[in-house]
Design the sequence.
C-alpha cells in the first residue's frame, strides 16, 4: 500500500511500487488530464509537478513520490490562471493533446523564472507539440510572465 498526495488529497493505493506515476494517476485515481504520449519521457505530455517541479510522470515510479506533493493539470487551476488565460487569448492549442503537459511545464518555468527570456523558454520547455505551436507557446508564456499571476496563491 502506498500513500500519494495528489492535488491536495491523500490517497492510499494498493499498487506495485514500480508502477509509473502516470498510470497511478490515470488508471487508479482517474485523473486523465495527464496524457500518455511516448512512455519514454521525451514528449512531455505526461508532465506533472512533484513538489512544484515539473517531472515526466511516465518515468517516475509511484514509490519515488510517496510523501511528496503531486499536482496534475486538474489541481493547478488557481496557480496557473495567467498561463491559462494567455493560452486561450492567443489560441495556443490546435489538437490540444500536448497542452496539459505544456501548461504544467510553463507554470513550473514561471515559478522558477518569473521573467523568462526566449532562451529560457527554449531551454525549459522541451515538450513536443505535433501541431508545432511553439511560437504561440512562447508568446503565451511571455504574456503570462507580464501578468505576473503565476505565483502560488
Sequence:
Amino acid at each position: 500500500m502506498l500513500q500519494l498526495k495528489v492535488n491536495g488529497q491523500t490517497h492510499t493505493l494498493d499498487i506495485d511500487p514500480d508502477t509509473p506515476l502516470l498510470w497511478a494517476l490515470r488508471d487508479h485515481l482517474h485523473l486523465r488530464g495527464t496524457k500518455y504520449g511516448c512512455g519514454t519521457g521525451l514528449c512531455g505530455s505526461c508532465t506533472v509537478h512533484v513538489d512544484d517541479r515539473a517531472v515526466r510522470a511516465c518515468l517516475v515510479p509511484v514509490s519515488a513520490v510517496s510523501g511528496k506533493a503531486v499536482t496534475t493539470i486538474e489541481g493547478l487551476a488557481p496557480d496557473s490562471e495567467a498561463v491559462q488565460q494567455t493560452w486561450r487569448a492567443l489560441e495556443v492549442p490546435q489538437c490540444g493533446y500536448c497542452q496539459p503537459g505544456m501548461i504544467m511545464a510553463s507554470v513550473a518555468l514561471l515559478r522558477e523564472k518569473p521573467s523568462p527570456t526566449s532562451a529560457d523558454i527554449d531551454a525549459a520547455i522541451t515538450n513536443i507539440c505535433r501541431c508545432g505551436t511553439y511560437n504561440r507557446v512562447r508568446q503565451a508564456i511571455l504574456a503570462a510572465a507580464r501578468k505576473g499571476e503565476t505565483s502560488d496563491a
In short: The two ends are 32 Å apart (CA to CA). Residues 77-147 form a domain with the DNA polymerase; domain 1 fold (CATH 1.10.150.120). The longest helix spans residues 99-112. The chain has two domains: 2-75, 77-147.
